[in-house]
């Protein structure tokens, strides 16, 4: 297993733990304190689990399992997938933190962080798909 694959899988596990911990806090606040979670906290919880944990796990396993190109075709540089990891990880963290913190801050001051995080998430997913595309598509006959 490459270090890059390991990085995706460890990050996915970290986001999963953070998402589950936030979910537990939201559950306790709702059931014990009678406070329903805000849209921002629900969004942070969802992004930590679905984008942070699930998508990073999928990309990491795909990079690990899909075969490398053969037959003289150039391999996809690992920097493309490293860029995907950075964009997806920083974007998810920024989005989750922005959504969670914006709950208590009036005036929408965290909107730029939330939008930037969402943009980085999209760019990271697109970069991952483009990097994995070479490993997925079949070789063309010349």
Quick structural summary:
The chain has 142 residues and is mostly helical.
Task: Describe the fold and architecture.
The structure is a single chain. The protein is mostly helical and 142 residues long. It has one domain. Helix content is 75%, strand content 0%. The chain contains four helices and no strands. It has helices at residues 3-31, 39-65, 78-102, 111-136. Helix 1 (3-31) runs parallel beside helix 3 and helix 2 (39-65) runs parallel beside helix 4 (111-136). It is elongated, with a radius of gyration of 18 Å. It starts with a helix and ends in a 6-residue tail after the last helix. The mean pLDDT is 87.
List keywords for this structure.
142 residues; mainly alpha; 0% strand
> Could you say how many structural domains there are in total?
1
The dominant shape is: elongated
Computed over alpha carbons, the radius of gyration is 18 Å
Count of runs of 4 or more consecutive helical residues: 4
Low-confidence stretches: none
N-to-C SSE series? Answer: HHHH
Fold topology:
Layout: H1 3-31, H2 39-65, H3 78-102, H4 111-136
Helix pairs in contact: 1-2, 1-3, 2-3, 2-4, 3-4
């Amino acid at each position: 297993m490459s270090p890059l694959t390991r990085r995706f899988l460890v990050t996915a596990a970290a986001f999963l733990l953070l998402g589950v911990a936030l979910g537990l806090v939201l559950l306790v606040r709702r059931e014990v304190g009678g406070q329903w979670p805000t849209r921002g906290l629900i969004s942070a919880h969802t992004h930590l689990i679905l984008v942070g944990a699930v998508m990073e796990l999928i990309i990491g396993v795909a990079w690990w399992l899909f075969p490398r190109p053969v037959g003289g075709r150039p391999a996809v540089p690992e920097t493309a997938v490293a860029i995907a990891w950075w964009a997806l990880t920083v974007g998810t963290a920024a989005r989750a933190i922005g959504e969670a913190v914006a709950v208590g801050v009036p005036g929408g001051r965290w909107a730029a962080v939330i939008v930037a995080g969402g943009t980085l998430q999209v760019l990271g997913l697109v970069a991952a798909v483009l990097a994995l595309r070479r490993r997925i598509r079949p070789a063309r006959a010349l």
